[in-house]
Design brief:
membrane; about 625 residues; about 60% helix; mainly alpha; transport; single chain
């Protein structure tokens, strides 16, 4: 008959009956009573009133009964600390029992009873168990030291248990070594400055020897410890890698990942010219791929780790792209992680394969996954420049499907591609404008507004398009409102006569929006030419002071005046300064030629005297925001 019968009773007066049975002279009846007590405790009944009666049952040679009593003690000792002291003598006696299982059971229970009053009484039995002749008792005692340290760290240090633990790293039994490493690692985590695991080549050799013989969890403890070791040279690093590599074929995925962690760290010390380095890279791929054939939960953990690995060394899995292709029955969290890894592994060699796969994903039924797939196409375009044209073509194909959420994601993505590759793909703007009316998501609307403002000179009816957004200005989200404001200012700088009316419209209670509007309005009303010039200094102190560098940098020699290039048939980015040959270049956030001058920048009161003239615009020290703000309120 099974033990399930102990969980079915609902009799009244049960505690009284159990008390009588626990004090019975018959061993079988006593064991049955303890089982009933443990069953009641398991289902949440309070049986703490039986504490003295259960403790009396400790005096037995029956291992099963002793285990049950110790289980009860671990649960109730904290709530009955005064009574728990009654069990101390039995613990001390059991630690000297001829049976190693009972000795180990006693020391394990001592570590689990978190009662300060009896901790000091357990030191001597623990010291004996740490030097016990049986390895099972020693490995159990090693873990007990870590538990005791958590209760009373000072006591453990005073009693010299930490030194004993360090000695156990040299033990002949691999499981004792593993548990000693685990205990020291746990203690070191709570005391980072203690340097308990002071590893040297000799101790590392012992750990590597134990690695082959201990259990899988013991291997994990040892591998994690090895990962914290710093080899003295590349030869030692290669030697450790050679001895850790066989763990890659272990059946336990945790052992595999711990081995990968060690190898990834020590590979930093190996020269890439070594033949062994290339061999190691090839050996790392198969175990990682194998992890993806496990259950979805394990797959996800493996994928999260692989994501980190490919960020550091994408060459490990560069030929394994197909294993990251999404399966129809993958959970969404696995799909999204695979998608991210695909983007990280994308290269000129495999981009055609990746794009074909992503285009297929964009026709799935899961909306969130489709959105991620469309965004992934854009990330591929930005990452692999040679594939940008193919990516834009794929996005246009997706826009033609007229699926609303696909179109909106595609527009957001194309905006990023425009920013990365100016002057290249403006031909698609007409297609984007055709879908203007279908945009209802703030991010997509803001992206489209940015495109219209940035390419206003290429769009004949740019003012009409922006005016259509202005009609529902107050109903738009803040993101769209801010983008609309900036786009209108850009349009005004390019077509001032046609858009004067648009710039003068609009009011808002949003402080961010209102302040940005004030800045733009003051810039434009004071000096539109100066506004154009300051746009070239966005991201520098000039944009903070609203003055050109020549107005506040001492010694204007070497300060090159910048202004927006004249508009011709070809489009040039607002932020793109003209180089010596008139070709558009990307503007660095802080021009290098200003760095020397800014070292001598005087941040004190403004220097009085005549303003320093620039080469083209006589701005001087005029504050474009100063004066006349009252008229705007």
């Amino acid at each position: 008959m099974t033990d399930s019968k102990y969980f079915t009773t609902t009799k009244k007066g049960e505690i009284f009956e159990l008390k009588a049975e626990l004090n019975s002279d018959k061993k079988e009846k006593k064991k049955e009573a303890v089982k009933k007590v443990i069953a009641s405790m398991t289902v949440g009944k309070d049986v703490s009133a039986l504490f003295p009666d259960v403790v009396n049952c400790m005096q037995t040679d029956n291992l099963e009964l002793k285990k049950l009593v110790y289980l009860y003690l671990m649960n109730y000792a904290k709530s009955q600390p005064d009574m728990a002291i009654m069990a101390v003598n039995t613990f001390v006696k059991d630690c000297e029992d001829p049976n190693p299982l009972i000795r180990a059971l006693a020391v394990r229970t001592m570590g689990c009873i978190r009662v300060d009053k009896i901790t000091e009484y357990l030191c001597e039995p623990l010291r004996k168990c740490l030097k016990d002749e049986d390895p099972y008792v020693r490995k159990t005692a090693a873990v007990c030291v870590a538990k005791l340290h958590d209760i009373n760290a000072q006591l453990v240090e005073d009693q010299g248990f930490l030194d004993t633990l360090k000695d156990l790293i040299s033990d002949s039994n691999p499981m004792v070594v593993a548990n000693a490493v685990a205990a020291l690692s746990e203690i070191a985590e709570s005391h980072p400055s203690s340097n308990l695991l002071d590893l040297n080549p000799q101790s590392i050799n012992k750990l590597l020897t134990a690695l082959n013989e201990c259990t899988e969890w013991g291997q994990i403890f040892i591998l994690d410890c090895l990962a914290n070791y710093m080899p003295k040279d590349d030869r030692e690093a290669q030697s450790i890698c050679e001895r850790v590599t066989p763990r890659l074929s272990h059946a336990n995925s945790a052992v595999v990942l711990s081995a990968v962690k060690v190898l990834m760290k020590f590979m930093e010390m190996l020269s890439k010219d070594l033949d062994y380095y290339g061999t190691l890279l090839k050996k790392l791929a198969p175990p990682l791929v194998t992890l993806l054939s496990a259950e979805p939960e394990l797959q996800y953990v493996a994928l999260r780790n692989i994501n980190l690995i490919v960020q550091k060394r994408p060459e490990i899995l560069k030929h394994e792209m197909k294993v990251f292709f999404v399966k129809y029955n993958d959970p969404i969290y696995v799909k999204l992680e695979k998608l991210d890894i695909m983007i990280r592994l994308a290269s000129q060699a495999n981009i055609a394969q990746v794009l074909a796969e992503l285009k297929e994903y964009a026709t799935e039924v899961d909306v969130d996954f489709v959105r991620k797939a469309v965004r992934a196409i854009g990330r591929c375009a930005i990452k692999v420049e040679q594939s940008a044209e193919r990516c834009v073509s794929t996005l246009l194909d997706l826009i033609q499907t007229k699926v609303n959420y696909v179109v909106q994601e595609a527009i957001v993505v194309i905006k990023d591609i425009f920013r990365k590759y100016p002057n290249k793909y403006e031909s698609v703007i007409a297609t984007l404008c055709e879908n203007l009316d279908s945009l209802d998501e703030p991010e997509a609307r803001a992206a489209m507004i940015w495109i219209v403002g940035e390419y206003a000179e290429r769009i004949d009816n740019a003012d009409e398009l922006l005016e259509s957004f202005l009609e529902g200005f107050h109903d738009e989200s803040t993101q769209v409102q801010l983008q609309l404001l900036t786009a209108i200012v850009k349009l005004f700088l390019k077509k001032p006569t046609e858009t004067q009316g648009l710039v003068q419209q609009g009011d808002s209670d949003n402080p961010d929006l209102r302040d940005r509007g004030y800045i733009y309005w003051r810039l434009l009303s004071t000096d539109p030419v100066a506004a154009k010039e300051l746009i070239c200094y966005i991201g520098t102190l000039a944009s903070v002071y609203h003055k050109p560098p020549s107005a506040f940098v001492e010694g204007s020699r070497g300060v090159v005046h910048k202004s927006l290039p004249p508009r011709t048939g070809s489009w040039v980015s607002l932020a793109g300064p003209v180089g010596s040959a008139g070709a558009p270049q990307h503007l660095v956030a802080f021009p290098c030629h200003l760095l020397g001058a800014l070292r001598n920048l005087d941040l004190g009161p403004p220097v009085s005297g005549p303003p320093i003239a620039t080469s083209s615009v006589q701005m001087g020290a005029v504050d474009l925001l100063g004066g006349g703000l009252d008229s705007l309120v």
